[in-house]
Write a structure and sequence with these properties.
Layout: H1 3-20, H2 31-40, H3 44-49, H4 67-77, H5 81-107, H6 109-120, H7 123-128, H8 135-152, H9 159-180, H10 188-198, H11 203-230, H12 246-260, H13 281-293, H14 308-311, H15 315-331, H16 337-359, H17 373-387, H18 393-409, H19 419-433, H20 438-462, H21 479-485, H22 488-493, H23 506-518, E1 526-528, H24 532-540, E2 546-548, H25 561-569, E3 575-578, H26 583-587, H27 591-603, E4 604-606, H28 609-612, E5 618-622
Parallel strand pairs: 1-2, 1-3
Antiparallel strand pairs: 3-5, 4-5
Helix pairs in contact: 1-5, 1-6, 1-20, 2-4, 2-24, 4-5, 5-6, 5-8, 5-17, 6-17, 8-9, 8-10, 9-11, 10-16, 13-21, 15-17, 15-18, 16-17, 18-19, 18-20, 19-20
């Protein structure tokens, strides 16, 4: 093979190691989604809609596209944590490869190799590709869409082929929509703008193609939504919605609520600020804003304490590169259309996503920022190559990046703080090497830019799993503080372990054994108050049918009190696990969660703890 092919192979191997090494030690990943993967294997309807529980009471709060490969993987390899996580690593490596092929068409081999390396070494991307949240597949679909658009604007392409590639791009964005809904559409303006700028077809043809792509985007995005809402038979309640429809999920919980913060914008309406009276006070409110909301919305969010170490290492350099491109473009009108379109595509991707992420008023987790990584990587790859034509261009980017790295590193100097002096030395060497050899200076400059994120990525890949796999982060694990500050009532709900790690505590095992031995022919062995996040441990570690009241955080109206009463009357449910307070009472929001538990307390009897060996939980027997 040629040197570029060897280099690409090495980068892909590096990505594979970072994404897959030791995933068997990461347990079940996000056990909420892993439990759903197990339940989805129990029947076609559960598989189609992404049911969390085998009874098909409620779905997860996202479309099922990201879960389908995980389910198939468990069919092939058996139900193991590593089998669930393996597709994520594969998708992550595929995204690195596709980004290389895309950037190579636009900016050349060297830019493509550097872009692939940057993406492979982005800390939050490394962590999320080792987890089973839907963002990994979303990124793959979006990078594939960028590849298709880039193919559509190549100078030598025919008009018909260009149209087909554009339609494929629209279809891929639609697949991204069915992975994480409106999060996929954020890049659509950049893709459209790139096609309009880069195409050599007549403007009438460009507009016609764009309209056709819009039609494909709508169909490929909304077919699952239509299928759900027009389904003639019984199906699970759509988790996260207010009325059980997928359309409401698109517009509400996964749509405007994320941008505007409607209803708190959080799972089950959990707000970023802790309600008055909630245990933990202002300290809990601060941690909740950082961990659950990514800090306060605003122009500095991508650089703050919660986000800086995840994605911002090369963000200042990428923004400087964009400014430089705009200034240079004013002086040089001879840039080929497809090259100009590449800057529009990746610059638009970064700016539009960055603005939406920065000012989103609803729930926002730091791992969402992996969607910025391909754009940053592409801009750095092409920008560094272009900067070599400018005196001290690469060295300037290296100094800028090293300076910002020092700021981020010394926010938590106990976490690999030793890299600070190393980065300074590398930046100084990059400047000094310029007087010896320009190519060597550029290589040292790139090393200065990538050293700190590489250390964070390697440390995260080879270090212990995150404390809470629902909210994976690179670097210092901020979710540890959230776990430590949660009030004891949260633990009581699920029998002593609410951290979503996927294993049963001793008390949970005793509860499950008691309910299993005495449920008789009940269809549902155990119902758990507090939602799917509390019930996931039971779903994962038993072959029994266990449900969680109220979807992800327990606030969804599924099951209703009428359904609950019907189950008990027909002998389909006998045991309910709860705490002294439920999620509605803890947050002061009441709603269906409080109504359900009011019914349980009024119609069921408390099982004496000595009968099953409990110490913190409250187990109800319903007859």
């Amino acid at each position: 093979m040629s040197r570029p092919k060897w280099a690409l192979a090495a980068i892909l191997a590096l990505a594979a190691v970072l994404y897959a090494w030791g995933i068997w030690a990461w347990g079940w990943g996000n056990s909420y989604y892993t439990a759903a993967a197990r339940s989805m294997s129990s029947g076609f309807v559960n598989f189609l809609f992404g049911a969390f529980d085998q009874a098909g009471v409620v779905t997860v709060d996202k479309p099922p596209f990201a879960l389908w490969p995980q389910v198939v993987s468990t069919w092939i390899f058996g139900f193991h944590g590593w089998a669930v996580l393996l597709p994520q690593a594969v998708f992550g490596v595929a995204a690195v490869y596709l980004l290389h092929r895309t950037v190579r068409m636009w900016a050349g081999e060297n830019a493509a190799l550097l872009a692939a390396l940057v993406l492979a070494l982005t800390p939050i991307t490394v962590v999320i590709n080792r987890d089973n949240n839907p963002d990994t597949l979303l990124v793959l679909f979006l990078v594939a869409a960028a590849y298709a658009v880039t193919r559509s604007i190549q100078p030598e392409i025919g008009a018909g082929s260009a149209t087909r590639w554009l339609l494929l791009a629209a279809f891929l964005v639609g697949c991204g929509f069915n992975t994480k809904m409106l999060a996929a559409w954020i890049v659509a303006p950049a893709l459209v703008a790139a096609y309009l700028v880069g195409s050599t077809a007549a403007w009438r043809r460009r507009i016609t193609d764009t309209l056709a792509a819009g039609g494909v985007l709508l169909v490929s995005s909304l077919w699952w939504v239509a299928l759900v809402d027009l389904w003639p038979g019984r199906r699970p309640y759509i988790g996260g919605s207010t009325n059980g429809t997928a359309f409401d999920l698109v517009i509400g919980y996964n749509g405007l609520a994320r941008i505007l913060g409607m209803g708190g914008g959080g799972p089950g309406g959990m707000p970023g600020d802790v309600p008055a009276g909630f245990p933990g006070g202002q300290g809990m409110s601060r941690v909740m804003r950082n961990v659950m909301m990514g800090g306060d919305p605003g122009p500095g969010r991508m650089f703050n304490e919660a986000m800086g170490g995840q994605i911002s290492w090369l963000l200042p350099a990428a923004l400087v590169i964009l400014v430089g491109v705009v200034l240079a473009g004013r002086r040089n009108a001879d840039v080929p259309a497809h090259q100009r379109a590449g800057w529009v595509l990746w610059g638009g991707w970064l700016l539009v996503n960055g603005l939406v992420f920065s000012f989103a008023g609803g729930i926002f987790h730091s791992y969402y920022t992996t969607a910025l990584a391909p754009a940053i990587a592409a801009l750095i790859g092409a920008g560094v190559v272009a900067a070599q034509r400018v005196r001290f261009g690469v060295q300037g980017l290296a100094v800028l990046t090293a300076g910002w790295a020092l700021v981020v590193v010394y926010r938590s100097p106990e976490w690999n703080g030793w890299v600070g002096p190393v980065v300074i030395v590398l930046a100084v060497l990059a400047i000094a090497a310029f007087w010896v050899n320009v190519r060597v200076a550029a290589l040292v400059g790139v090393a200065a830019m990538l050293f700190t994120p590489a250390v964070w990525s390697v440390s995260s890949a080879f270090g212990p799993p995150p404390a809470n796999a629902s909210l994976p982060t690179a670097g210092p694990d901020s979710s540890v503080e959230l776990v430590e500050m949660m009030p004891p009532q949260m633990a009581e709900m699920a029998g002593g372990n609410w951290t979503n790690k996927g294993y049963l505590s001793d008390e949970q095992r005793k509860v499950l054994d008691h309910a299993t031995a005495r449920s008789g022919g009940a269809r549902i062995t155990l119902a758990v108050d507090g939602g799917a996040i509390m019930a996931s441990n039971f779903v994962l570690n038993s072959g029994r049918v266990v449900i969680g009241f109220g979807g992800f955080m327990g606030a969804d109206p599924a099951p209703t009190t009428d359904e609950l009463a019907g189950w008990v009357k027909r002998g389909e449910l006998r045991y309910v696990l709860a705490g002294r307070m439920n999620i509605g009472e803890l947050t002061g929001r009441g709603g269906e969660a409080s109504k359900r538990m009011t019914w349980v307390r009024d119609n069921c009897t408390v099982v004496p703890r000595e009968e099953y060996g409990g110490t913190t939980s409250v187990l109800y027997e319903c007859r």
